[in-house]
Amino acid sequence: MIEIDKIQEELKKPLPGKVIQYKMAPSDRVIRDQAVNVQEIKRSAVLILLFYKNDELHILLTQRASYNGPHSGQISFPGGKFEATKDNNLQDTVIRETREEISLKPETYEILGELTPLIIPISKITVQPFLAYCSNISQALVDGYEITDLYQIPISHLLKSTTVKTKQENNLEYPYFDFKGNVIWGATAMMLSELLEIISRSKH
């Protein structure tokens, strides 16, 4: 059984970082990162929620609604942009956004620590991932506006090598995690890659 305490201990050590994140990056990712003007970058945060279901560790992901934007319909983590009028820091941001998107109150989960920040070039934002353990995931609900569905995915499924696949489009390669035909790619897959490395280390 994967233990939350051991995962939290791993978070106190040097993080796997970009080397592991980039294993799940599109083939042109480095070039697009270099083209970003850091002065234009805005801050954001996401919450990576772990929970047990039938004594097995799971992770919660959301299905974004379709809209006229770069992340329309994608599978992602709850979260959003820092708002200076509402948030003192990025942890405030992720708590507020999680409550808005999936109705999850902060008292139902414990923030364990942070993963490596990640730039999303197309959105001109940097994302701070927070890792949390949720004691009552049944309270999570879609808001129907920003989020249309929730996915409860076993960590054991994501750790299987057969779960990682690659698609080709416009002469580029896009690695992704396959969950029952659903594609988890881009920044979400990159953050997952680092999390799975941390979990793997916690088992030794």
Plain-language structure description:
There is one protein chain. The chain is of the alpha+beta class and 204 residues long. It has a single domain, classed as Nucleoside Triphosphate Pyrophosphohydrolase. It contains six helices and eleven strands. It has helices at 4-11, 18-21, 29-34, 90-102, 155-159, 186-202; strands spanning 42-53, 56-64, 75-76, 79-81, 109-114, 118-120, 125-134, 147-154, 164-169, 172-179, 182-184. Helix 1 (4-11) packs across helix 6 (186-202). The longest helix has 17 residues, at 186-202. The model has no long low-confidence stretch (mean pLDDT 90).
Q: How would you spell out the order of helices and strands?
A: HHHEEEEHEEEEHEEEH
Unreliable runs: none
Give the class-level CATH name. Alpha Beta
Which CATH architecture would you pick? Alpha-Beta Complex
Average pLDDT, all residues: 90
Number of domains: 1
E-strand count: 11
Structural class: alpha+beta
Shape: globular
User: Percent range for helical residues?
Assistant: 25-40%
Q: Provide the CATH topology.
A: Nucleoside Triphosphate Pyrophosphohydrolase
CATH superfamily: Nucleoside Triphosphate Pyrophosphohydrolase
Please describe the biggest sheet, giving its number of strands, its sense, and whether it closes into a barrel: 8 strands, mixed
Tags for this model:
11 strands, 6 helices, three-stranded antiparallel sheet, alpha+beta, Nucleoside Triphosphate Pyrophosphohydrolase, 204 residues
